[in-house]
Amino acid sequence: MAWQKVKIRPEQELVVGGWVKGTGRAVDLGALLVGVYEDGGLRYAGKIGAGFTNANRAELLAAVAPLATDAPPFATPPPRAAARGAQWLRPELVIRAEFAGWTGDGLVRQAAYKGIELEKDPKAVIRERPKA
Predict the structure, then answer these.
(1) SS3 at position 95
(2) Of 117, 93, 116, 97, which Cα lies nearest the Cα of 107?
(3) What is the pTM of this model?
(4) Are 20 and 85 within 8 A, CB to CB?
(5) What are the E-state strand segments in 5-123?
């Protein structure tokens, strides 16, 4: 009998509040800065820099271009290191990501981009919690 290891990774909808350029092949789009709504404000929930292909990177860049703004949309600013070189966006784009879990300070851990959620209202995106 052969055993197969399968990782179960939760998925979560997240609101895109900004993005940063990358290096190498990902020089056009390195990572998305994402958040969830909490107490009426958009709370920073981390960066997503995995799961991109050339095709979905081009799709994302086209989707974020008209959302550019000068100020970060997050209620509390992201850490300075995460925000360095960020292009801020109006929080109108919702994406789906899979991740390994939440850190103690409320950030997604080892998150990977899965796709754009066109039908989802950004204000309805909150941190999903498993049922007990």
Answers:
(1) strand
(2) 97
(3) 0.90
(4) yes
(5) 11-20, 31-38, 41-48, 87-98, 101-102, 108-109, 112-116
What burial letters (b/e) apply to 44-59, b meaning 16+ CB within 10 Å?
Answer: bbbbbbebbeeebbee
pLDDT per residue over 45-54, tens digit each?
999 999 999 8
Question: First-to-last CA distance in the chain?
Answer: 34
The per-residue pLDDT for range 53-87, each reduced to its tens digit, is 989 999 999 999 999 999 999 998 899 998 899 99
Structure tokens at 97: 């990501």
Q: Are 93 and 67 in contact (CB under 8 A)?
A: yes
- How do strand 101-102 and strand 31-38 relate by DSSP bridges? unpaired
